[in-house]
Amino acid sequence: MATQPCQHVGALANRSVRPETARLRLNTLSILETNYMTNATTESKQVAINDIGSAEDFLAAVESTLKFFNDGDLIEGTVVKIDRDEVLLDVGYKTEGVIPSRELSIKHDINPDEVVEVGDAVEALVLQKEDKEGRLILSKKRAQYERAWGDVERIKEAEGVVTGTVIEVVKGGLIVDIGLRGFLPASLIELRRVRDLTPYLGQEIEAKILELDKNRNNVVLSRRALLEETQSATRSSFLAELKPGQVRKGVISSIVNFGAFVDLGGVDGLVHVSELSWKHIEHASDVVEVGQEVTVEVLSVELDRERVSLSLKATQEDPWQVFARTHAIGQIAPGVVTKLVPFGAFVRVADGIEGLVHISELSGQHVELAEQVVSAGQEVFVKIIDIDLERRRISLSLKQANEGLDPEGTEFDPALYGMTTEYDENGEYKYPEGFDPETQEWKEGFESQREKWEQEYAAAQERWEAHKKQVAASIAEAAAAPAAEAPASGSFSSESSSTGALADDAALAALKAQLEGN
């Protein structure tokens, strides 16, 4: 005989149930009782087949359709609706779960459509099982926190590395999404402090975990620690490969008062200010700037202290060598008076090259002080009378440069004014390539050589003309000087009144006649 529904009702009534299902089961009992009474009064409607089973089977079937959870539980659901302020999640509960937009992501002011889509499977944490309106309040962000904290704690214990995307630039550093809001201080982003953090926004970076405090929800990261750890292994091998005398390319990484640091590709070396240039400089910024690519020579490597000394000027030709190669004793060179001293004057004749004009070589007349002839900043032509490359000294003469030069002369020697000249082993002049000495003409196909030669010739001639003007001016100044004072560098003198007046018209006329060759 088939089991009557009332027997199931009795079994349900006698079995203790969870409070959460009490109302649902009472409704079930009511429905079953109603069906039973209806079947009892209608003979044509009887239960022919028992498709429910025993009372225990029936209870298990009912309970399998229900979900039980408490505040703080992690549950899964499917997104069924997305609004501007919230997302609805089907979690198999009597009502749909609600995720407020602020609980969707660790990013601030996020658009829900950018985080989830309808149909997405989402894990959420139960914030409130039933609020005042009877809604189930959930948080996707907090669920992510719970999962991430466990992962981050395990990585911290293992001294591992976390990977995340930079989502915000804040005061003093960056916020990195590692499942949590990790703070990366600006001082720990690179091996050196970075000033502009904006380029890091949106980048995926790796970092070590420095601090972890779940109670304060505080995670501090360090990318620098990872870089130092990564470079530590390669640094030793790189330093071992560096040898004095090697020439390496690098980039200026920083400038300090005593020089500049050059990144050689993971290892920084110091170029002392004295090794930056052949000429005297006050500060490294006078020669280089941060980010500039340079070629340097390795001077020394201290493996125990991991220090590398470099030289920039060693990779550049010594200006003294250049000067000695391009100038000869007896040549006339233009220069600028840089300093006056009791024993003469220093004249800069090339970049980084200064020579001394001894006081005895300033003028054909007796001179007590250099100020009587020249002044600082004055442009002059001097004759090279000695080059001491070993001691890095050159001797110059203003007197000899001016002697024998006729301001009105026409005989021009380009070699005397710096034009390159070469002689063979017999002392014969070597004509430039492409020039035919027999025809005194340039051959075809040597246009570039001709153009270069003509430019050098024109430059030498320009210096010659300038020198003649200087000598003429010197003669004029000497003629106009007071008679009581001997002329400093000119060849002419004139009488003047005892009161120190300038030369009279007769003296000037005599000077003019002399210059005109009368």
Short account of what is shown:
The protein is α+β, with helices and mostly antiparallel strands and 518 residues long.
Instruction: Bin the strand percentage.
Output: 25-35%
- Overall strand count: 24
**Class derived from helix and strand content:** alpha+beta
Helix content: 25-40%
Strand order of the largest sheet: 1-2-3-5-4
Shape: rod-shaped
Q: pLDDT average, as an integer?
A: 78
How is the biggest beta sheet arranged? 5 strands, mixed, barrel
The radius of gyration over CA amounts to: 48 Å
Low-confidence stretches: 1-24, 486-504, 514-518
- Number of H/I helices: 9
Termini separation:
160 Å
Structural description of this entry:
- The chain has 518 residues and is of the alpha+beta class.
- Helices cover 26% and strands 28% of the residues.
- The chain has nine helices and 24 strands.
- It has helices at 5-14, 22-41, 55-63, 140-157, 223-241, 319-326, 398-402, 447-480, 505-515, and strands spanning 74-82, 86-90, 97-100, 121-128, 136-139, 161-170, 173-177, 181-185, 204-213, 218-222, 247-256, 259-263, 268-272, 293-302, 307-311, 332-341, 344-350, 353-358, 379-388, 393-397, 422-423, 429-430, 435-436, 441-442.
- The strands form six sheets. The protein has a five-stranded mixed beta barrel.
- A hairpin with a 2-residue loop joins strand 6 (161-170) and strand 7.
- Helix 1 runs antiparallel to helix 2 and helix 8 (447-480) packs antiparallel against helix 9 (505-515).
- The longest helix has 34 residues, at 447-480.
- The termini are far apart.
- 22% of the residues are buried.
